[in-house]
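Pipeline run #58 for the internal structure catalog. This entry was flagged by the ingest filter as a single-chain record with no existing model, so it goes straight to prediction. Upstream metadata was stripped on purpose; only the residue string is passed forward. Reviewer on rotation: M.T. Logging verbosity set to normal.
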Amino acid sequence: MPRSKKATKPKATKVPPRPDLNDSRYYFNRELSWLEFNNRVLHEAFDPRNPLLERLRFLAIFCSNLDEFFMVRVATLKQRLEAGISKPTPDNRTPAEQLLAIAERLRPMVAQHHRHFEQALRPQLAAKGIYLLDYADLKPQQQQYLQHYFEEQIFPVLTPLALDPSHPFPYISNLSLNLAVVVQDSATGVKRFARVKVPNLLPRFIALPDTLWPVHRSRKTVWAGVPIEQIIAQHLHFLFPGMTVTEFYFFRLTRNADLTLEEDAEDLLQAVEQELRKRRVGATAIRLEIQSSMPAPIRSTLIRELELTEQDIYESDGLICLRDLQLLSDLPLPELKYPAWTAAIPLQLRQTNQRFNRETLEDIFAAIRRSDILLHHPYHSFAASVQVFIDQAAHDPAVLAIKMTLYRTSTDSALLETLIAAAENGKQVTVLVELKARFDEAVNIQWARRLEQAGVHVVYGLMGLKTHAKVALVVRQEGSEIQRYAHISTGDYNPRTARLYTDVGLLTCREDLGTDLSELFNYLTGYSRQRRYRKLLVAPVNLRDQLIRLIHRESEHCQQGYPARIVAKLCALVDPQMIKTLYEASQAGVKIDLIVQGTCCLSPGIAGVSENINVISIVGRYLEHSRIFYFHNRGAGETYIGSADWMTRNLDRRIEVIAPVDDPSLAKDLQEILGTLLADNRYAWELKSTGRYVQRRPRSLAAEINAQKVFMELAEQ
């Protein structure tokens, strides 16, 4: 009988260690990621599929975005550097390393954007009869006209400022375009330096009368003009009589424009006004844009007097400050723009808008009582939905109170005029005006004063917390009961951006949401310390914890063998804890699709870390501003909308509101919006694990999926 073989112990399989999710390799730098977003904006200026004036507009937006980036983000890094703060970011970069990396990435981008305008867009504009001319190329009759214009319109408002022992270096205001002028005294031969500011109240481009337009056989001229700084430069002798102008060079300065408020300020309105004055006259210089031909002595003088370094200098061979090209992109030439779009009235409100008048008050409230209403701007009309909601509330005798948060709005907001009318009609009107909304502080202060004068109860937000939530609450007496109607949105109460940004909003009279909003407003206006809400996710109270709970729930379901999926649409994803939680969900097998329009610090597609995460960014005709969140939840999907991005400031230092959309048909609509965006191959860019974005390209024009165009077609139907 053969001997039995001795049983052998199986060899232990070596389990690879789980990746450390705090490793800096798994996080992109916030500032560099934002630069990549702006590079995608710049790409739209290069893309020949876009109409010519729209390409010009994207070039201007790129420049405008950079201004804000330097005024806030670069300024903050410089402040940290000067304060000796060397704490690295999650991607392990110090402030000094970030500033160096920004300059290295940005210089070729800036050079490319100037070169594209001079070599591509400017000639194409001329081919369409739009001539941005250089003064040196003008004919004598054109120069004669501009000399007369200079003497009559420009010369009276110019103020040359000398630099010598009796004249200290003049203050250079933020974002001002200037001329550095060298003059020589004809009597002594001594050369002196002076600065001339280009008045920002005059048009940047001075149009020639049509009688002096260039004439071409093959094309018709539709506009012709000259940059104002060139007109000033050619007439500097008017400003320095008895002197010889030997040299002149253009330059532009950017200063720190972020506000620093004391937490114990007794009067928030007064504190913001004081900081605005500092922004105008006392802010630190951050960036200097100059002509590349500027000689070393003048360059050194500016660097020394403005306390800058060579790293802060950005050179240009052409026009400085291309953000003003927005003025040309506004020319009334529809054939060179996107097809005109008229926002549609939401189906549920069409009868209301057709029949409503202030006498019969066949109102929007009846429509909301029938069912919740989902708004999708700019495809749905802001005026025919949100404006009507507030307008009817202002004039309905049954309405007792209107409460609203205001983060950003326009200077001519009809909606705020309606709130004034509501107060005059005896309604209890309360508006929380966020005075710290960056770059809109002055507009908000003006509206706050007007609202107060009309009898509106104005609250200025909470120290240490910006109120970024976009909510409105209407309280109405209906028989013996009180009924609350609410609008919860991802976008501001701003009619202008409602035509340019994509946002979603919910009109509802659900009791639990209305009660939550009542308690939220009590928190914002009084001394409430509300810690629990029935439905709302509110920052900084419970939003972070609830989002993490929802993500963890998907991980648990996946580990139990159920399908699990998360889709999130955001403007920015920066918060390290949220990124780490998403990595953990990916490791558990959860399929995650992220639509992140701007900054994204999460690195997708890394084996063992984020291989189940895909990230796209959509940069198109409209700015993708809506925030939508979907969690599969074992087939009982939950969908949310709201104001918060997944950034530390939104989760911990702002008042934000995220609300569930419980109506099954509306939740399905939101899921279809997400699905359409994920399928886009016209404006979508895929983020790679290297940090590089690659734009999707359809195989053919017939295979193109333009999500924004799809939404227009659906709204028209």
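catalog note: The two ends are 86 Å apart (CA to CA).
catalog note: The domain at 537-716 is CATH 3.30.870.10 (Endonuclease; Chain A).
status: ready for reviewer M.T.
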